[in-house]
Amino acid sequence: MTERPAQRTPNRQLAALIAEAGFSNAGLARRVDQLGLEHGLDLRYDKTSVTRWLRGQQPRGTTPALIAEVFTRRLGRRLSAQDLGLDACAPVYAGLEFAATPEEAVDIVSGLWRKDSGSHAELRKIAFTPAGLVVPSRDWLIGRADEKVARGEQAAARIPVHGRPALRPTATPEQGVPSLPRQRGQAERGPGQKVTAGDIAALRSVGELFRTLDDAYGGGHARQALVRYLEHECEPMLRGTYGEQTGRRLFAAAADLTRLAGWTSYDIAAHGLAQRYFVQALRLAQAAGDRTYGAYVLVTMSRQAVYLGHGREAVQLARVAQQGVGTSGPPVVQALLHASEARGHGVLGEVRACTAALVRAERALETARPGDDVPHWAKFFDEAQLADEFGHCHRDLQQFRAAAQHAERSLQLRAPSFARSRLFCRVVLATARLGLGELDQACQLAAEAAGQAAEMRSVRAVEYVRDFERRLEPYKDAAPVRTYRDKVSALG
Questions:
Q1: How far is CA 480 from the centre of its chain?
Q2: Whether this model's pTM surpasses 0.90
Q3: Do 306 and 454 fall into the same domain?
Q4: Where does the record place the region Disordered (predicted)?
Q5: Domain that holds residue 313
Q6: Among residues 25, 104, 297, 438, which is most buried (max CB within 10 A)?
Q7: Per-residue pLDDT for 89 more than 70?
Q8: Confidence label for 288 from pLDDT (cuts 50, 70 and 90)
Q9: Number of folded domains in the chain?
Q10: DSSP character string of 266-326
C-alpha cells in the first residue's frame, strides 16, 4: 500500500493507544492485515508501516477505519479513526459504528442517508462483513441506556410553528412509487423546529405505505423514494427540538424506517449497505428505549445472515435478541425470536437444535391471545408465517415430506398481499416436491414462482428461483424440465 507524504507531527494518540493495548508494532500490523482479509482486502502491512504511522503518515483508503476497529475489539470501547489521530473513516466502512450517543447516531445515520440518496450505485457494491456484526450486537446487549434524547425544548417554545400539517402518503401500490408532497406554500422545516405528534404519525404512515409496497412488489420498487424521504423529512426532525417522550417516539419511528431501508436494500442484494442500515436502526432503537424493537432489528440481521449462508452468526444474533428481551416480550415476539434461531440451525444442518427452536416457537405462538398487545411490526408473525419457517427449516435439513406439508399450509393461510413471501414459500414447496421425486409438480410450482418473480423488483425472488433451477441439473433432459425452461424463457 502506498502512503501519503509524511507529516512533521508524531502521532501521540496512536502511540498512547498502542501502549494501552499492549501491541507491538508488528502485532498491530498483523491484526490490521487479518481484519483486512475479513473485508476481502490484501493489505500486507508490517512493523515498518506502523513506525511510519507513528511518525505522522496517514494510511490510505479504509485502513484508518480498520485500525480503529482493531483497537475497538482489543480495548472493548468504540474508537474512531479520529481518536487514533488518523483521517476519518472511508465510506466503505462508515455505518458499521455503534454510536456512543444519540447525537452521534443521528450524525452517522443521516450521513448514510445522504450518501445513499446521492450515490447509491457505489454503496450497493459494499460487501457484507460478518465481523461487523460483533460489536453492535454486543454493545446493544450490554450497553447502558441513553439517559437523555431531548433537544432544545426551551428553544422550541420560542419558534413559531405555522400550522404545519402532517405529511400523509398519497399513493396506492397501483400508482407506483409514492408521492409525498408538501402542502402548497408550506415552508421547509427550519433548523430547531419543534417536532409534533403529527410529524411522528406521518413517519409511521409512510412506513406502512413502503412496507406494503415492499411486500407486494419487492424492495427495489420504491427504495430510493424511501431513502430520499429519510434524508429530507426524517433527518430535519431528528435535528429539531423535542422533549423526552416525543424524542423517544421519534427515534422509534426513525429506527423503523431505517430498518425498512435496510430491508429493501437487502432485497435487491445490496448486502453491505443493508448491514449498515440495520446497525444504525439498532442504535436508533436503543435511543428510543425500545428493547423489543431492537431485538427485531437483530432478528432482521439474523435473516440476512441466513440468506448469505452465515448460520453461526445467524444463531448468535437470534440468541442475543432473546437475551435482550428476556421473558418480557409478547408471545408473538418470543415465537419470532425462536423461529429465527431455528433458521440459523437449519442452515448449519443442526437437526436437534433446529427442531428444539421450532418447538419453542410453536409453543410461544400457541400462548398468544387475541387481546395481546402486539407491536405493529410483529403482527405479520402468525400461523402462516410459522408454517413458512417450518417449511424453510425442513427444506434446509432435507426433510422434504415435512417441508412440503408446512409449505402447503403456509400458502393456504397466507394473505395474497404478502406476494413475495408466498413466492418464497412456493419455491420451498417446489424444492420439497423435487426432493420427493415429484418432478412434474415441482416444475409447475417453480414456473408459477418464476412468473411472479418477473413481476417484482426483488433479487431475492430471482435467487430463490435460480436456486431451484440449480437443483434441476440432474434432471435437465427430462420433459418436465424442458417445459419449465421454455416457460421461463418466454418470460424474458
A1: 38
A2: no
A3: no
A4: 161-194
A5: 290-381
A6: 297
A7: no
A8: very high
A9: 4
A10: HHTT-HHHHHHHHHHHHHHHHHHT-HHHHHHHHHHHHHHHHHTT-HHHHHHHHHHHHHHHT
